[in-house]
Amino acid sequence: MHAWFAAAVDSRYSVVVPIIGIQ
């Protein structure tokens, strides 16, 4: 896995996870 891809996925999850947690 490319580092930039992992960073992009991590940044997205860090934003999506809290939203899902609230809902």
Description of the molecule:
Helix content is 87%, strand content 0%. It starts with a helix and ends with a helix. The chain has one helix and no strands. 0% of the residues are buried. It has 23 residues and is mainly α. It has one helix at residues 3-22.
Short structural summary:
The protein is mostly helical and 23 residues long. It contains 1 helix and no strands.
Secondary-structure blueprint of this entry?
Blueprint: H1 3-22
**Total count of helical runs of at least 4 residues:** 1
Strand content: under 5%
Largest β sheet strand count, sense and barrel closure: none
> What is the averaged pLDDT score?
80
Percent of residues in helical segments? over 70%
Keywords, separated by commas or semicolons:
rod-shaped, mainly alpha, 1 helix
